[in-house]
Structure formats: structure tokens, C-alpha cells
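hey so u asked for the seq, here:
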Amino acid sequence: MNITKIELINFRNYKKKSYDKFSNLNIIIGKNGIGKTSIIEAIYLGSLAKSFKTNSDDTIINNDAESYKIKIYYFDYGLNNNLEIIYDKSGKKTKINSKIQKRLSDFISQYRIILLSPDELKLIKSSPNIRRNYINIQISQLHKEYIHYLNNYNILIKNKNDYLKKMMINGNLDQRYLDIIDEKIVDEGIKIYNYRKDYINKINNYINDIFKNYDKNSNIYIKYVSDYEICDKEKLLKELKRIRKKEINLGMTSFGIHRDDYEFIHNNNNSKEFSSQGQQKLIVLAMKLSEVKIFINDYNIKPILLLDDLFSELDEKNRNSIFKSINKDTQVFITTTDLKNINKRLLEKAKIYNLDERV
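ran it, C-alpha cells below
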């Protein structure tokens, strides 16, 4: 699956612009602020219908415009397809081959993406919520039913929390409702836990060997930390019953997969506290390249790899190691400010888009 053309209208600093004739390896060069990352962001939006830069679509619209539009053309299984995202005051509309999609879940992941950007260090440094959201996105690209389970779980937790708040004020409310909703929460939670555990296990099948390409004397794996580790329905329900009084006093659900976390274990220590920033960059890189292998080897899916500002983050040896790890049929988009430090053989294979030439 390859992207062949992108059309942008009132998107970021692009009033109206198209890029086409993409190859497997595409290098987008230009000064900072000229719009390199916006192209990467548009490709990301075309897959997941959300930006990795902001949660507000209003901030994406070009100055003085009232809407933005992205159109992505791609070639898959011998067919030419196109996707559209249109955002205005009425909300976000999505189309596949010009047909409006009623549900966002039907639109997302027509093609799959894996992004590596300087901001990805937040996967190690930031809160568990950031890590959970990331894993949810990646699993959702592989299993559409996962979104359904996750939505169900979140609705159940909200309903339970609303009831716990009422019980905190009025302790005489019937607890049988909590028995019923806890059983439903555990059923959905076990499904989600198994998907997450399986995905982390798959990452761990690859990540250490990939990391040794950059640091042969180190070891790395991801540890999945979850309340559902026992993964037994009766034991989980028993635990929820045991802590019920505590949850009523708190007015919220304090046990469940909505509290999951993932720890990057580097040489037997949590990378968040014990690894240097340079090591953390390589750990995130190794994880991303592990995910490329998962998509290809485990699911026979060729993802599109987005490498935003990669060359400012890594030395020449590590940059070259990346391309040795990438399947030659994987479509790659790279942004950079200059071509000086890029291997000449790599440049010969690449399609280069110089954004400085358009100003």
C-alpha cells in the first residue's frame, strides 16, 4: 500500500497545495516552520482522523479560513483509492472514494501508520495516560473490534463513577447495580487486557534485538503493569467487591485497565529514571521499528513510516542502522532541514521534495 498524492486546502500554512509522484522513500527538506511536519501530520490524519500535534482541529485551519480539507490518494491491492477529511464549524466529515462515512470507525486505518517524531520521547517521560492512548491507537489500527470494546469499557466506567458519586452522598442506594456493572466492566476489561498483553508481547519479541543494533551491551523490554494481571473473572470481581467501600468513599473506580501502564526496562531499571535522553531516543526508536515488524511479520500489513525531523536526533551510524531494519517495500516519509548528513546511496533511492524552492 502506497500513498500516491496529497491535496491540502487551508491546512496549517497551506492555502492550496498538492504533492504527488511519491516513491517508497520520500525526503521532505526545508527550513523550520516552512511546513514539513504539516505534510506528515496530514498523512497521519488521513489514517486516524486525528492529529498528533493538537487535540483542537480549529487550530489546524489556515488563517482567515473557515474549514480545512485533506485528500489522500493511495494505491492498494491493485486499486486506486482516496480518502477525504473536511473540518468546519459543523464538525468533521470523512469520505472514502467520495462516499461520506457515517461512523468514524469505518474511516480510520484504511492505511496504517507508524510515527517517529521528537515528541515521541513523551512515551517514556510523560504520564501513564499518554502511554495508554498510544497503545490504544496502535492496537486499533490492527483490530477494529478493539475500539468497540474500549468504548464500551469507558462508558461503563463513566456510568459506575456517576453512581459511586451518588452513593458517596447517599449511602442507602442499592449496591446491586454495582454488582451488575462490575461484571460487565470485568468482561470488557479482560478483552482489552488480552489485546494489550498480546501487543506488548509482540513488541518484546523484536525490541531487544533491534536495540542491540544501537547499543550492543544493553538490554531492553517493555513491562506491562495492570490491575488485571490475574486475568481471572471471579478473582477480579472478588477484588472489586473487597474495595467497594473505598470506591464509594472516593466516588470513583480505583481498579481496572483504565489505570494500566507500560514501563520501558533498560538494563533492569525503569528508563524513565535511569536512562539518558540519548538512550531514551534509541529505546523509542527500537520500539517503533519493532512495531513495523509486527505489522509486517505478524499481520502481513505494510505500514507507512513517518520519520519527522529524524536526522537532527540521531548520528550517522544510527540513521544508517534504521534503514537496514526497514523492509524495502515499506513506504517512508522523512522530514529534514538539510541533506548534508544523509548517505549518498540513500539519496539516490529517494524522491526529494524541497519546500524551500516553493517560497
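Residues 176-211 form the longest helix (36 residues). DSSP finds twelve helices and 14 strands in the chain.
lmk if thats what u needed
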